[in-house]
Amino acid sequence: MDPQQIGKAVREARRSMGLRQDQLAGAAGVGLRFIVDLEAGKPTIQLGKAIQVLDALGCTLTMDRRA
């Protein structure tokens, strides 16, 4: 998964919950700019904050090893 795909998944999850970006930012304890950058697929986001956002959305991050 690349940063663009992660951003798209976060945006879709947020929208499916009926949240605005600022609402998600507040729920996750991050700034609005971080949500904007994350959803835009910025490749240099902070992983810890991204995990906070995923947690606020009720999502988890899993990692699988490629063959």
Automatic annotation (TrEMBL):
Source organism per UniProt: Croceibacterium xixiisoli
Matching Gene3D superfamilies, A to Z? lambda repressor-like DNA-binding domains (1.10.260.40)
**The name this protein goes by in its record:** Type II toxin-antitoxin system Y4mF family antitoxin
**NCBIfam families in UniProt:** couple_hipB (TIGR03070)
Q: Which residues form the HTH cro/C1-type domain?
A: 10-65
Tree of life domain:
Bacteria
Q: Which GO terms describe its molecular function?
A: DNA binding
Entry-linked InterPro entries = Cro/C1-type_HTH, Lambda_DNA-bd_dom_sf, Tscrpt_reg_HipB-like
